[in-house]
Amino acid sequence: MPSPETFLDATKWMGLTTLGLGAVAVLAFLTQWGIRFRLVGITGFCAVLTIGLFGLSFEPFVSTTVEGSVPYTTVFDSGASQLVIAVPADISDFALESTLRQAAINSFNPSQLSGGAQSPKIRARAIIHREPGISDLLYLGQVQPDSTSESGYRVTLDSSQLAKARAAFQDS
After folding, report:
1. Does residue 63 fall inside a structural domain?
2. Domain co-membership, 52 together with 123
3. How many CA atoms lie within 13 Å of 117's alpha carbon, on the beta-carbon side?
4. 72: which of 11, 22, 77, 85 fits an S-S bond (Cβ 3.0–4.6 Å)?
């Protein structure tokens, strides 16, 4: 995935291209070329692309990896206050806490942290299969922003649900 530096470099080149096309468009108007209006349109489109590339250079595309975390899948995202991730049923307490911190770092954005009606929350869940055709969702833990915490996040693990998930994993 391209980094913000790559987009900034592309912005410089696209800006130079836009300026060059603008100069050609001015020349086309001075000499009454038949394609002068097309050149104005092309120059305008290049200017829009330049602005878009410049905007993309601000967004961090590189996701953070927290040591000890495991791969997770986002299974639900309300877009505002709740995100649910799927983790393996045999996850350890340390790995779950690390994974929740990683999900928080990569998923919470400043607009969610602005103090709206609800505090944003990321919940981790696992699926256990009691018997063929019957599955249970277990919510193993959650993370929320916390300005009083040193890390900026408050992680809560549900030890009873973790014990159920481990027991079901060992039975299978």
Report:
1. no
2. no
3. 3
4. 85
